[in-house]
Amino acid sequence: MESNINLSRRLLEQFLVVAQEKHFGRSAERLGMSQPPLSQSIQRLERVVGVRLLDRGSGGVRLTAAGEVFAADVRQLLDLQTAMVERARRVASGLEGDVRVGYVSLLSHLYLPTMLRTAAERLPGLRVHLHHGSSQEVADRVRTGALDLGFLRDPARLSGDLVSRVIATERIGAAVPCEHPLADAGGIALAQLREEDFVLPDPTALPVLAKQLQIVCHQAGFTPRGVVVADDLSGLFSYVAAELCVSLLPEGLRHLAVPGVSFVPLEGAAGRLDTVVYAVHRSDADPAVIRLLEMITSLPPGNPQDL
């Protein structure tokens, strides 16, 4: 037996062809080589393995018992090698792997179901893991690498090593209790809410929305009378549903079947008030993250559930 075991893929493939053809001449022709070098290769393989793999005869060859077992194992080995290479290429191209996604508040109801469903259909090799947190927590975890991708609403500031991309823009509307006199209005001027109690977005947790609300109310000639503050959209939503106050919220929330809240479009300058959903990731994001973002941005515009 040769002390150096060198079973190259080429040598193993040659053996499998001989095992299939059971004839050196036909095997050599199929491999595009002459017969003597092929015979020498198989003899070298037998020396490396240390057993006779083929019985030679005038009419051809047949596998020995050891050769039968060896041939089956070789087929499995070559299939595994092919699968290893293909999987490595899929991972490198972003077609397979794990993506850790962070999100804030009600985005899980509006956008994530469609993302997960479409990813399962188009990128079945990707495994998406969801993590909830505040905007700042999600941004910080993406920056440190604890998360691969984050979905945020109107982040105030992002560090320079994070890349952001707009994936959705939603119009802001007035959110009022269902029993409110304006609940069934086709549209209102923001000034019509000047005497109402407001639940205000926390300027630390929701800085852009908080600033926008103060600006548009000032333009409408009043300062909103804030009686409570909430640090996420679900909190704003809940105070309105409890019939304690009114607020300004993304109209996409109307798709949530939560009783007690009516959305009324804003007219005039306030009617151009928008909130933006961003996807954020590191500048050195893995190919799987880029693939997932490409999938999201390729979806047609529509309802929030359509991303």
Entry summary:
The protein has 307 residues and is of the alpha/beta class. The protein contains ten helices and 13 strands. The chain folds into three domains: 9-92, Arc Repressor Mutant, subunit A (Orthogonal Bundle); 101-163 and 281-306, 3-Layer(aba) Sandwich (D-Maltodextrin-Binding Protein, domain 2); 168-275, D-Maltodextrin-Binding Protein, domain 2 (3-Layer(aba) Sandwich).
Secondary-structure blueprint of this entry?
Blueprint: H1 9-21, H2 24-31, H3 35-49, E1 54-57, E2 60-63, H4 65-92, E3 97-103, H5 107-110, H6 112-122, E4 126-132, H7 135-144, E5 149-153, E6 162-177, E7 188-189, E8 197-201, H8 207-219, E9 225-230, H9 233-241, E10 247-250, E11 261-264, E12 266-267, E13 274-282, H10 287-298
Parallel strand pairs: 3-4, 3-5, 7-12, 8-9
Antiparallel strand pairs: 1-2, 5-13, 6-10, 6-11, 6-13
Helix pairs in contact: 1-2, 1-3, 1-4
3D architecture notes:
The protein is of the alpha/beta class and 307 residues long. It folds into three domains: 84 residues, Arc Repressor Mutant, subunit A (Orthogonal Bundle); 89 residues, D-Maltodextrin-Binding Protein, domain 2, CATH 3.40.190; 108 residues, D-Maltodextrin-Binding Protein, domain 2 (3-Layer(aba) Sandwich). 40% of the residues lie in helices and 24% in strands. It is built from ten helices and 13 strands. The strands form four sheets. Strands 3, 4, 5, 6, 10, 11 and 13 form a seven-stranded mixed beta sheet that branches. The chain has a two-stranded antiparallel ribbon with strand order 1-2. Strand 1 and strand 2 form a beta hairpin. Helix 1 packs across helix 4.
